[in-house]
Amino acid sequence: MGVNVSSGGGARRSSRGSRRAPMAEINVTPFVDVMLVLLIIFMVTAPLLAVGVPIELPDSRANAVDQTPEQVTISVDSQGVIYIENEAVDDGAFSEALAQLNRGADGDLPIVVFRGDKDLDYGRTMAVLGELNRAGFTSISLVTSGSVSPP
Question: Concatenated DSSP letters for 73-121?
């Protein structure tokens, strides 16, 4: 109840009546640090999540293709293996796999983004594109890497 004087020269309250007031400040520095690290991780990994099939694309001066949610990526690597998104398609099962693709809410087919390796045989490319056309996919975008000089 009274003030005790200690040998340190400072005054302190007795243990009976001392109650700390609740701390009204929140330390947000650790939260900001964690969020910045997560932001950096997502910025680095987001471009890698697009399509995981490693393909050497041919060069072109064409304009960039807009990304839309209603699109399907078809990739063909240098050995001629066909991928729908990141899943390899068995030989002879490409037309069945195309029939399984989801249609839009109004029944429209999704836009096809075609990625073909630059060392791929032209006949194999045309066979895949012909099968896409036969399945009703008429909106097909061809993906290339940009080049600086015209042909």
Answer: EEEE-TT--EEETTEE--TT-HHHHHHTSPP-TTSPPPEEEEEE-TTS-
